[in-house]
Amino acid sequence: MKYAWIFYALLLSGCGVYSLTGAHIGGKTIQIPSLENRAPNVNPTLATTLENKIRSRILSQTGLTSVNTENADYELKAVITGYSVSVTGAQSNNMASQNRLTITLQVDFVNKLDEKASFKSSFNRFEDFKANQQLQSVEDGLIEKIGNDLADDIFNKAFVNW
What we know:
Helix content: 25-40%
Radius of gyration: 20 Å
Strand content: 25-35%
Structural class: alpha/beta
Number of strands: 8
CATH superfamily: Lipoprotein like domain
Distance between the termini: 32 Å
């Protein structure tokens, strides 16, 4: 324990910045343009909601500054490619017992400091709800949960390298 401070000093003296989430941040700026919604079914507030969740997650966990210039260290472009409801459970009388809202994003992440860390990937998440509920009555809550999960997935892939 006497020399523990040396270990911590060496650990902290490496290049880049590490956050408490395990993220490695070598840059200072990120550009996150507005999300485009190309899903066949469109929720009018979905793109703004998801963009805000992704932006908030990245900025709060990394200390990066959001900029509107192509000179940013990182660039994250996302397109909503899917927004659908499907039946996931059936009762014995062939009636739906459960439905599922699924949201899919296509993400293009460019790390200008380390091209090997750049990626193009599809992310999708879903939440189930009872079939006797109208989508409109549970939609905001489902989007909130799915949006948080998608923001976590994108953040982890971009900065935690999972």
